[in-house]
Amino acid sequence: MTRRSGSNSSAAAVTAALAVLVAMLAIGSLAVGPVKLSPLTVVQALAGLGGEVQQIIVQEIRLPRTILALAIGGILGLSGAALQGLLRNPLASPSLFGAPQSAAFGAVLIISLGLADVRSFALPAAAITMAFVSVFVLLAVAGRNASLLLLILAGLAISALAGAATALVMNLSANPFASLEIAFWLLGSLEDRSFRHVVLALPFIVAGGVLLFSQRAAFRALSLGEETAQSLGVDVARLRLIVIAGTALGVGGAVSVSGTIGFIGLVAPHLVRPLIGHDPARVLLPSALAGAALLLAADIAVRLIPASSDIKVGVLTSIIGVPFFLYLIVRERRALGGGVA
Amino acid sequence: MSAAFLTARDLAVTLSGRDVLRGVSLDLTRGHLVALVGPNGAGKTTLLRALAGLIESQGEITIGGDSLASLALRERAKRFGYLPQGHLVHWPLPVRDVVALGRFPHGATDPAWLSPLDAEAVDRAMAVTDVTQFADRIVTELSGGERSRVALARVLALEAPVVLADEPTASLDPRYQLDVMQTLRTTADAGTLVIVVTHDLGSAARFADTVLVMASGALAAHGTPNDALSDEIMQQVFRVSAYRAQYQDSGVILPWSGT
Question: What does pTM read for this prediction?
Fold first, then answer.
């Protein structure tokens, strides 16, 4: 094989640097909390060395939270990059298309109907189903070769519908404490998560990630449009279904334990493109790493920011993500204004 | 080489209840340049898509003796180089990576890792289309004419037995229109079946071995340029009369006045 230097080797270097950053943030995430630990203590505790108290804090209290931040941030970044690849569109992302909101509705419905408690597999199942339905409906409504504007309008409608349906469920909920619980959970948080939550979400997140990553070559062919990709041997209809399924599994699994954490899927691919180029296959892995780094950092930040009440990590990612979205809108103004999308 | 390589029998396409294509039968040979002409909306693009198996059609298509319907998507992809109109590239990718996507059906799915065979095909295609000089530039920053040559290079890199090109000379200046037609002529002479949709009857007459004239979804004429673009067909199908001449061993046809 002839290996071409340039874009490929720089992509490998960026990926390696991102992996190191994620590892450092993961250690940071294990060190931060009511009991501050040094990075060295954290590494020792992970290895089963050092004091028993430190080991319990790191391995049993903080490790599930760190694993979830890593996995959920990763799958959000990956599914954002995959949706952008599928739709050849830099503004595509699960949260703009209403997938997390719909997944949250599925979960809330299950809880308030009393069908399951928050630790049962019915929760991710419902969240994944609603996420699948929402992305499927979105792509069906927008149609093939949909413009940016059409996708975003359809996404807005689906987000609004999912939000309204969730509000209705809370509205009708007989128990005011239940609706308070649901509301807090909807804000998106990784606090007090245990290994039970990891077991609940991780298999779906991994399955979704594998599905999305397996389609990377097809995203590259799609750079030339759906018809040309098909002429190159890509089954575009099948690809769409796989991406919808992968996104639904990943986002649904994530939402079922963390609530809605928005905008990481939108932001992560944009952070890596200036470093490694726009090849839609090559951005997948770095986007997943960037997503993991973003969520780990945000989850560390909410523990460090002094506040009378805990800031939820989902609130923080939205506060950072929405201005970034506005910036992207300004940059893509020509395409959104009805020009050549 | 004289046996038909690509055949169609009673090809018909219906799109949202409208018969876009009906009763098209063809026998096309490798080594030929076939010009597909006809007024706007005659079904030229639909015929190309149907031949490549990109849309559903009724009737029977064979390529190299195999029924198109029996071929897997990947196998079809190796046999047809398809160049659509518009030459759209959605991401700002380097020119070489775009051309390398032409090797995708051969399993070269990552432009950064090409086998020597694939890399040579890419280099050849870039050389004949004269895009080697901007191999490292970003495709979306090129002019329309440059981009359409990159698109042609992508199709030629596949080195498929059949090339289907939908208006490859649109938006090119005269010099590059001639270059593209000459490149396609050379490609055909090397043993490829090249089918070109064009509105330029002059270059159809000059470069093609066979001209297919389409009108309202059916073949109106089929033959050598002089036979297919007869005065009668020019009147009936295009509603123009043409000026004809002979120049340097080639027939010249120039649409002259509308009726």
Answer: 0.90
